[in-house]
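Long-time lurker, first post. I've been practising inverse folding by hand and with some scripts of my own, and I keep getting stuck on stretches where the structure tokens seem ambiguous. Below is the full token string for one chain I'm working on. Before anyone asks, I'm not after the true native sequence, just a reasonable design that respects the backbone. If someone could post their per-position residues I'd love to compare against what I wrote down in my notebook.
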């Protein structure tokens, strides 16, 4: 089971933040989070209201990731509200189980307060201790400079460009494929 103990820290303004494992009971709040982030950031694969899963389907995803030995699903909370999500979704095919895809999102009100950084520290620390994982990958929009800089600080390197991966308001955008050994 991919579980971590709850971790608490203070944000720069002194507000308490915690990182914990996602629970099936978080499903509706997680969908709300994703839709909110989609309305605040131009870099996601969907626009607000386009998240394709129902609450029941999201509960299944949470259970699947929490039960998999090569996956992790974390939420960051402030005052009982989900303000960030970090996932490591491990491969399901036998020859790809050693690889996980990283995803990080934080709502705008908490950008640049260290939530993404702390969540990545926790997730990468877990991945480095995981006996299954040997590689982490991610895809990032070509213009998401803040995310690219953060991923680079954590040892991710550009491994390629996926041309025209995203079509936003009729314009095509490339994404960088980045990876890191663990």
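-- Answer (accepted) --
I ran through it position by position. Result:
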């Amino acid at each position: 089971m991919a579980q971590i103990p709850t971790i608490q820290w203070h944000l720069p303004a002194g507000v308490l933040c915690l990182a914990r494992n996602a629970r099936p009971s978080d499903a509706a709040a997680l969908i709300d989070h994703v839709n909110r982030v989609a309305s605040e950031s131009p870099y996601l694969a969907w626009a607000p209201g386009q998240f394709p899963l129902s609450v029941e389907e999201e509960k299944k995803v949470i259970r699947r990731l929490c039960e998999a030995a090569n996956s992790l699903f974390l939420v960051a909370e402030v005052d009982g509200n989900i303000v960030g999500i970090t996932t490591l979704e491990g491969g399901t095919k036998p020859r790809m189980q050693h690889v996980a895809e990283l995803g990080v999102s934080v709502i705008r009100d908490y950008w640049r307060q260290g939530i993404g950084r702390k969540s990545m520290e926790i997730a990468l620390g877990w991945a480095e201790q995981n006996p299954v994982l040997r590689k982490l990958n991610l895809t990032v929009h070509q213009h998401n400079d803040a995310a690219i800089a953060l991923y680079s600080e954590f040892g991710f390197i550009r491994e390629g460009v996926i041309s025209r991966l995203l079509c936003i308001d009729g314009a095509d955008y490339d994404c960088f494929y980045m990876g890191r050994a663990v």
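A couple of notes from the structure itself: Strands lie at 7-10, 16-21, 72-78, 81-90, 99-106, 135-141, 157-168, 171-181. The first helix runs from residue 27 to 40. Happy to go over any region you disagree with.
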